[in-house]
Amino acid sequence: MTAIVNPATEQPVSQLEPATAEQADEVIARAVAAQRRWRDVAPGDRARLLRRFAEQVDAHIDELAALETAEAGHPVGAATWEAGQVRDVLLYYSAAPERLSGRQIPVPGGLDVTFKEPVGVVGLIVPWNFPMPILSWGLAPALAAGCSVVAKPAEVTPLTALRIAELALDAGLPENVFQVLAGKGSVVGQRLVDHPAVRKITFTGSSEVGRQVMAGCARQVKRVTLELGGKSANIVFADADIEKAAATAPQAVFDNAGQDCCARSRILVEAGVLDRFMDLLEPAVKAVRVGDPADAATEMGPLISAEHRAQVASYVPDDAPVAFRGSAPDGPGFWYPPTVLAPLSSQSPAYTDEIFGPVVTVTPFTDEAEAIVMANDTPYGLSGSIWTGNVGRAIRVARSVEAGNLSVNSHSSVRYWTPFGGFKQSGLGRELGPDAVDAFTEIKNVFIAAD
Ligand code: NAD
């Protein structure tokens, strides 16, 4: 049995028997049969079922949010938003089945048409940091495309995915079109990668496991989308609205206690405004409300586990240059305070590694060219922000930073109606936005002779 533990209290929430590789094979066999039927459901009916699925999620937002707060320690306000995102993403992609058009291409001697065919069974491997949104980003477009889905939630956060699968059945989705396989990554996750009947893997998680998943998929030339780690820059130029940049910098990195692939965990500040920026950042960091995730006023909860907290803490040894810190509760729970490190060498692990916790570094730069070099000096390329009052600079820097999702004068990262994904070792392929369904289809070209 695997115990699911509330990271804010260290008390057990539930326990589950992890699935075996043999059970994974049974689930995959059912998914194969279900997919053959699902692809033949009329597009309008697939759309209607997705909308009903969204309605079921909407009717259970509070229940799903409470589950996420209990198993992942997310503040209830954030967890409610996350459950709402599942509904919204299902609704967004419910418009897709009726719009999955192919093309008619002029050819001599007949008619040439293309079809967007579903790839088949999709293995959807999900991390623990945003269990509900990340599930929905793969699930909704895959179902819309006519694929069946076997989702593998992270070991420590399976409860919302299991409940969402029940809601899918309640909404009338045919059995086995969406199944959840709760178990170990090395057992059932690996089985999804290795099983030839699984035609595509959508993986979100660490770059290390992502590399293994990609290698596994390569053996079968299996389609794969990878959403991996990040070490994103928050670049603040002297001509920016420094108050706003400093006021939002804590949210940009400490949201979800820094367990966010898009966390802007390296703040780069133009040297002339560094002191002013730090003066403004300190009260903003100290004002972050860290505490009981079930309290609606809480902004930051605990880390996911004791092991993860120890790993985060290892980036802040006793002699680390802590500029200032926020607060964290005493007592049970895997708490870690928001922490600002400065000055720091660019060789320091806290500057180079994805910490995945509430630790941010602040480093000065001298000019635009140096800011771009520093922002790109990382194997990752997921996200980032650029703060400037100069439109030309905003355009130049946005085009030069090697990252998939940038925002100018904003700390926002993910909008489900715009594409999301990484450059370099932050991933492969894009999720979300109007084209995401294409990642779950194959183009079939058919020539029909006219003679
Ligand atoms: P992880 O790589 O440890 O695990 C992710 C998932 O993969 C889990 O479900 C795990 O059980 C499974 N897994 C583990 N070994 C496997 C194997 N051999 N085969 C198949 N599946 C396997 O990641 P994590 O610790 O759960 O999540 C944190 C990481 O996820 C961070 O690096 C973060 O940046 C990244 N992340 C990226 C995005 C993005 O969209 N780019 C979003 C969220 C999180």
Describe this structure in words.
The chain has helices spanning about 20-40, 45-60, 60-70, 75-95, 130-145, 160-170, 185-195, 205-220, 240-255, 275-285, 305-315, 350, 370-375, 390-400, and strands at about 1-5, 10-15, 105, 110-120, 120-125, 150, 180, 200-205, 225, 235, 265-270, 320-325, 340, 360-365, 385, 405-410, 425-430, 440-450. It has about 450 residues and is an alpha/beta fold. Helix 14 links the parallel strand 15 (about 385) and strand 16. Helix 1 (about 20-40) packs across helix 7 (about 185-195), helix 3 packs antiparallel against helix 6 and helix 4 (about 75-95) packs parallel to helix 5 (about 130-145). The chain is globular and about 75 Å long. The chain starts with a strand and ends with a strand. The chain binds nicotinamide-adenine-dinucleotide. The site of nicotinamide-adenine-dinucleotide (NAD) has 32 residues, from helix 7 and helix 8.
Overview in brief:
With 451 residues, this protein is of the alpha/beta class.
Name some characteristics of this structure.
single chain, alpha/beta, 14 helices, 38% helix, globular, binds nicotinamide-adenine-dinucleotide
Number of strands: 18
Strand order of the largest sheet: 12-13-14-11-10-15-16
- The global form is globular
Largest sheet: 7 strands, mixed
- Measured as a percent range, the helix fraction is 25-40%
Give the mean pLDDT. Answer: 97
Residue runs with pLDDT of under 50 for 5 or more positions: none
Helix count from the secondary structure assignment: 14
